[in-house]
Structure formats: C-alpha cells, structure tokens
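Duplicate of #3305? Posting structure anyway:
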C-alpha cells in the first residue's frame, strides 16, 4: 500500500503563485510515476501534470508555461509549482501515483488539497 499526503493549498490572489507538495510513504518501490490532477466544482477530474522516474513530464495545455512539476526521489515527494494563477485554476488538487500515467482509480490517490484563486 502507498499513502499520499498533499499540502500547500490555500487562497491566493489572481496572478499569484503557490506550491503544492505530496509525500509518498509505504510501498513506494512500486511507484514509477507521480502526478497532479484537479477537480473543479461541477467538472470532471482532469490531469494537470505528471512526471516519471526518468524525469519525463507531461502537462495539460491549460497550465503549460505556468505550472512546473518536479520530484525529489530521495524524499519520495512531488511538487507542483503554480504561477500566474487565475480563477479557472480553482479546484481540489489531488496527488496521484502509480506505474504509468494516466492514473486511474486503480492507482494511488491522496485526499486532495483545495486551491482557491480570487479574482
């Protein structure tokens, strides 16, 4: 089993920045990739960014150039640096981990952290 714990969410003004962190614990040897997804009210969950153990990254078009995903393998932690935030980025952000993205319900998920961007 793998446990994922997110932190770093909160309220930020439009145009501001925020950093999310996700720490993995448990059977982390089974994890090849980690990532961030988000779900806004009334919308489906969507991929934000993913990163593999080799460092390959993938981003949603809506966040390219504004968000950066990174990983500290020694600390089993993945980060999401978010910049130029706007109201459309308001959502619950979930950390996910597994063998290969896209992640499904069969993979590991955190409880989520709320990000609210005020206009």
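Output from current build:
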């Amino acid at each position: 089993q793998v446990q994922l714990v997110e932190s770093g969410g909160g309220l930020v003004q439009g145009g501001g920045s925020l950093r999310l962190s996700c720490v993995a614990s448990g059977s982390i040897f089974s994890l090849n990739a980690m990532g961030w997804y988000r779900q806004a009210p009334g919308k489906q969950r969507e991929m934000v960014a993913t990163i593999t153990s080799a460092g390959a990254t993938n981003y949603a078009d809506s966040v390219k150039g504004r968000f950066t995903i990174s990983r500290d393998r020694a600390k089993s932690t993945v980060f999401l640096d978010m910049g130029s935030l706007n109201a459309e980025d308001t959502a619950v952000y979930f950390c996910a981990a597994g063998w290969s993205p896209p992640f499904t319900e069969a993979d590991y998920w955190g409880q989520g952290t709320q990000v609210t961007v005020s206009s």
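Confirmed duplicate; merging threads. The CA atoms of residues 1 and 114 lie 24 Å apart. The longest strand covers residues 18-26.
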